[in-house]
Write a structure and sequence with these properties.
With about 80 residues, the protein is mainly α. It has one domain. About 55% of the residues lie in helices and about 0% in strands.
Length: about 80
């Protein structure tokens, strides 16, 4: 999927569960394109090392989607 085709609302936000959002809400809002873009490097690093979300690791393909969205300009 080309980076330009990725959108936060359609492709990124649904990856984060409500429980993920609640767990991180003190630091940033995982359902906000602005917040995820602003903290994107840290979010991707935590997703890659398996420390986020705290109850299970994401498949590499999902982490790559977030990374590609960020690299493609983080469109809402």
């Amino acid at each position: 999927m080309p980076e330009s085709a990725l959108s936060f609302e359609r492709d990124i936000k649904p990856l984060f569960r409500e429980s993920d959002r609640d767990a991180m809400r003190r630091a940033f809002d995982l359902w906000s394109a602005i917040d995820v873009a602003a903290h994107g490097d840290a979010i991707v690093a935590r997703l890659r090392d398996g420390s986020m979300p705290c109850d299970q690791s994401w498949p590499a393909e999902q982490v790559d989607v977030v990374s590609r969205w960020l690299e493609g300009g983080a469109q809402p």
